[in-house]
Design a protein that fits this description.
transport, 0% strand, MFS_trans_sf
């Protein structure tokens, strides 16, 4: 008998559903990355007389309340994902729809207070972290986890390639695209597009909402439940998808002269990728083939109580995750503000005091901020497919993760020196080379750190039945993050690059 080969990307089963789960994290990262490209300018539009330092503080508050609300509700969502009543799929759907509504609210906000309310709602319903991570690992055998864990940083990289440029390019369309949306324009007529004049940053927010709603439809139609307690129950989304598939096969393809290779009963739809990983010839998705014999709720035993979940391994692992999330989130927040802040005037501006005190930022417009932030995604893709396989093969996952942590402070120390290049030199090649270097160091380290801590969290779970709760705790243990957002944005504007250096420390 032929022995199965070692795990590889080609041998991973259920690729279609893994792609759907990955898309959940992509759209979540997308809306957050897009918002960072224009958040500074949207807040400034509420009150043009507000100082840069106050706007920076408001940026920190907006990001802080999102994270704080996520911390408060993440364990609740994790418990819901483990319960037979909700399950993974319903939690993911609720999160996507809730965040889409939040984006619509931010789009039409006219004050800082209103934006805070909607961002708080978005954080409270954001359960994609725990839900998607749990479903991702439950879809595949443990031998594939070292590879499927790479889909999470891949989702972040993809979102950072497209999110910031889209957010920047769609910002204030009347100002930047007057021929299309301004007075006497193609789409605006004599008076321009009125709602775009009133809400100049509504368009990118609405686009993010559209992306989230579209992914919710994709999840509803094609994602199968991974929680054992809900497997075998009726899934109207899968039924609807199976019906649409059969309609397409019978009424569209056959009228065009095509015919199925074999007869297929529409009532017996099967998944495009079945449990064995083989492709179905006629149906994309369908109703589960057999019902579970396990009584509902049996899997949710007393082992899911929080005191039993919080083992020594879980506490140590979540502490590691907290430190990693703390510094990664802090740098991302400061980076967008650093790119947007005005450059220091080399003649009349305040002088920097090296090596820790810097003044000014890079002075980029929203579209250029989006381009600069997208470099993080491009570098991440390159590192993941070129650097990661070689380094991981030589040192292994654990050692690669440990070594990567030493590179983060290097990126944080170098980043504020870019303000010196921006204010003292007109050579854009040198400036963008510096930006790329910082991105390469930071994202190279992140590429190795994230899969490692995710696998550690997954393996530390005392039972598969509490995996949703464990990953929910993984989102909740970043409690310093919300408070840190506000403090670092305030500190960063007043002491410029010093806050970036402190993040690395």
């Amino acid at each position: 008998m032929r022995q199965p080969g070692p795990p590889s990307w080609s041998s991973i089963p259920k690729k279609f559903e893994l792609a759907i789960i990955c898309s959940v994290r992509i759209v979540d990262f997308f809306q957050q990355a897009a918002l960072q490209a224009f958040m500074f300018y949207q807040l400034a539009s509420y009150s043009p007389d507000t100082s840069e330092s106050e706007i920076s503080f408001q940026v920190g508050v907006l990001q802080g309340v999102f994270t704080a609300a996520q911390i408060v509700t993440s364990v609740i969502w994790g418990r819901a994902a483990d319960s037979p009543t909700w399950g993974r799929k319903r939690v993911i759907l609720a999160s996507l729809i809730g965040q889409a509504v939040s984006c619509i609210g931010v789009a039409f906000s006219t004050s800082f207070a209103t934006a805070v309310i909607w961002r708080t709602l978005g954080g409270a319903v954001n359960a994609t972290v725990g839900g998607a991570r749990t479903a991702l690992f439950e879809k595949t055998e443990k031998k594939y986890h070292s590879r499927t864990s790479l889909l999470l940083p891949l989702a972040w990289n993809i979102a950072n390639i497209f999110g910031p440029p889209v957010g920047g390019l769609l910002s204030d369309p009347v100002r930047y695209y007057p021929a299309l949306f301004g007075d006497n324009s193609l789409f605006g007529g004599a008076n321009g597009v009125t709602w775009m004049k009133t809400y100049p940053y509504a368009l990118p927010n609405l686009f993010c909402a559209l992306v989230l709603f579209a992914d919710a439809v994709l999840v509803f139609l094609f994602l199968e439940e991974t929680l054992k307690a809900r497997q075998g129950r009726r899934d109207r989304g899968l039924e609807l998808a199976a019906g649409l598939q059969q309609f397409f096969v019978h009424y569209v393809l056959r009228r065009s002269g095509y015919q199925s290779l074999n007869d297929h009963d529409p009532r017996q739809g099967t998944s495009l990728i079945d449990d064995g990983g083989s492709a179905s010839s006629t149906s994309m998705v369908g109703v589960p083939k057999e019902r579970s014999t396990t009584p509902p709720g049996r899997e949710a035993t007393n082992s899911s109580t929080l005191p039993r979940v919080l083992t020594k391994n879980i506490i140590l692992t979540l502490t590691t995750v907290a430190f990693l999330d703390f510094q990664l989130g802090g740098f991302t927040a400061l980076w967008s503000m650093f790119l947007s802040s005005e450059k220091r005037d080399p003649v009349s501006g305040p002088k920097p005091h090296l090596p820790f005190k810097f003044t000014g930022g890079l002075g980029f417009s929203p579209s250029v901020v989006g381009l600069a932030m997208s470099i993080l995604g491009f570098v991440g893709i390159i590192c993941q497919f070129v650097l990661y396989p070689r380094v991981n093969a030589r040192f292994g996952l654990l050692r690669s993760t440990i070594y990567s942590l030493f590179f983060f402070p290097i990126a944080y120390v170098l980043a504020p020196y870019l303000s010196l290049l921006a204010s003292n030199s007109d050579n854009q090649v040198v400036l963008w080379s510096g930006i790329t270097l910082v991105a390469l160091i930071l994202i190279g380290a992140r590429t190795f750190a994230i899969p490692g801590v995710v696998l550690l969290t997954n393996n530390a779970s005392p039972s598969p039945e509490v995996l949703g709760t464990v990953h929910g705790l993984g989102a909740a243990d970043i409690w310093p993050y919300g408070r840190r957002e506000v403090v670092q944005q305030w500190f960063g504007e007043r002491h410029c690059g010093r806050a970036v250096v402190v993040t690395g420390v």
